[in-house]
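user:
I keep going back and forth on a fold encoding question. Separate attempts, laid side by side, tell us more than any discussion would. Would you put together a sequence-and-structure record for a protein of your own picking? Write it directly below this note and I will take it from there.

assistant:
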Amino acid sequence: MTTSRHISHLDLDAFFVSVECLKNPVLKGKPLIVGGSGDRGVVAACSYEARRFGIHSAMPMKLARRLCPQALVISGDMEDYSRYSKLVTEIIADKVPVFEKSSIDEFYIDLSGMDRYFGCSLFVADLKKTITKESGLPISYALASNKLVSKVATNEVKPNGQLEIPFGNEKSFLAPLSISKIPGIGKETSELLNRMGVETVHTLSEIPAPMLHNLLGKNGIELWRRANGIDESPVVPYREQKSISTENTFQADTIDIQFLQAQLVRMTESIAYELRKQNKLAGCVTVKLRYANFDTVTKQSSIAYTGADHILLETAKNLFRQLYDRRMLVRLLGIRFTHLIPGNYQISIFDDTQEMIRLYQAIDSVKNRFGETTLKRARGISSLPVHPRNSRQ
């Protein structure tokens, strides 16, 4: 006998926009764009009113202004968004034993077994009310037997909606939807399937799995499973102690500030690349120093979630300046990123141009292909040897 799971997906509605409207209620109900202020900037988020004009995230700001000249444009404040994200995370952590933070504004919660007690439907409905009451932010959710169906269902009832898909109704719920609603079907795959006459999830689910495998490889099998509402992926418990770090013990103790700063740049750049490669953002930076007498000191700073070198570097440099106050020989230098969440570089950018985004993408593309040491900042190059001790968890 198969025991049904109870998985809920929760998604803060137009999160960046909702935070701005909470700070300034005058903005409610208006076409609002959060993003870079110049023509070369990009849209980080937009209100549902702005979406009616065809505006969407990652769109060039120049095009967005053309589609909706009356839209209000604000630069955004990632520190505020990070703060509210952490607030909602704390509310969920206080109420739910097992939850996964899948992005800055999305969560999965596993309520399996709770139907015997309080009831899953009542619990998640009450959680929605609590989040809205304590944070002031609107949130939508869906309750289903797996992560896939719950996420798709949430997207169907936004904004400020709620929906339950009873166990056994997964296929019938998905069947009439466009194939573009299924996670993992991008523009190219969607166009390919459309040319074959496959437009709905129902039609996709009827294609034999071996045929989809021949057409799309391993991804074809996974798409067949999704079209049939099958998803056994677990809710991965959220753990903030996950980190990416590196430290270097020098062959010779040093007081050379330029050398130490060069090492800091090199190490920060290295693990920032690792952060982006894992599609994560960091919410805290820690710098560690060990002096020649083996005294070890650390200093950390909470930051707005980011994966951008220039922000992480500036934070690391500021921490180093505050930390290195003894003017003693240094034996070891380390840096660590913590408070990691899934996400990508783009969502943390509001003032950067399209060129800056493309520059990061190009740098990471070169590093992915030829190795991370092929490109580095000149400031991070030094001649003194070190003994690296890396920890990337």
Observations:
- The CA atoms of residues 286 and 300 lie 4 Å apart.
- Residues 257-277 form the longest helix (21 residues).
- DSSP finds 14 helices and 14 strands in the chain.
